[in-house]
Amino acid sequence: MRGPAAKRVRAWTSGLAAMLLAAIARAGIPVFSYEIVHTYPHDSAAFTEGLFYLDGYLYESTGLEQHSTIRKVRLETGAVLAQVELPPQYFGEGIVNWGSHLLSLTWKSEVGFVWDLRSFKQLRQFSYRGEGWALTQDGHHVIMSDGTPRLRWLDPQTLAEIGHVDVSLNGKPVSRINELEWVEGEIYANVWETNWILRIDPSTGQVVGLINLAGLLPASDQRGGIDSVLNGIAYDKKGSRLFVTGKNWPKLFEIRLVRAGEVLQ
């Protein structure tokens, strides 16, 4: 991305950072940094859009038209154990498991897919209005982001929208809510094109904590240009392990959150 578009992105990111700093100063919202517990290999050709952990394996979706896939990945090695390609016209987005199924979104096509979790056989399609960005679930509902401040609650059987909350920070809406993960009663949400993950109260949409992952991927490992941003959160509930990665990142990190004394950047 170059020229005016790149300038708009930088301006938006700077504006978000200013809002976060102001919110921290006014409301004392807790800010967390991180410690790296373990580093795992990750396919640097994977334009990561969705990620979750289940029964010892990672499930990952990748984006871009003609290159979108859904994969089952061995955590320890990054090896792809099973994979299905989306039809070439679709830009793959978020994924989540529900029972014996895997659900996936596409970006602008307003089409989602239901897959068999074991075989990756496509079972059916479903539709929604607007863009599809990310999915997670709380054990009762499927939760969807669409790039706006709104998080949609979906019926896991019909995938119809049955409710929503709007994400806010000190009363101000936060847009570009992207990759989602349900973590111990909170929704963790990456804000696209930033190093920030929001900790969101699902009952109100209010941001109750901020995670700053600046510097997580060393500059020497940044291979994909301006689009190689943080995007991928997975949680191992049994092991209390938090994993993060990004688009075209050669590494996936297990991290531990640490209460920060100051914002890193």
CATH architecture: Beta Barrel
Fold-level CATH name: Lipocalin
The oligomeric status of these chains comes to single chain
Shape descriptor reads globular
Spans where pLDDT lies below 50 across 5 or more residues: 1-11
Can you walk me through this structure?
- The chain has one helix spanning 3-27; strands at 31-41, 48-54, 57-62, 69-74, 80-85, 92-98, 101-106, 111-116, 122-127, 134-137, 142-145, 150-154, 161-166, 168-169, 172-173, 177-183, 186-191, 196-200, 207-212, 230-236, 241-246, 251-259.
- An 8-stranded mixed β-sheet has the order 16-17-18-19-1-22-21-20, with no helix packed on it. It has a 4-stranded antiparallel β-sheet with strand order 2-3-4-5, with no helix packed on it. A 4-stranded antiparallel β-sheet has the order 6-7-8-9, with no helix packed on it.
- The two termini are 22 Å apart.
- β10 (134-137) and β11 (142-145) form a beta hairpin.
- The radius of gyration is 17 Å and the shape is globular.
- The chain has one domain (3-259): Lipocalin (Beta Barrel).
- The protein has 265 residues and is mostly beta strands.
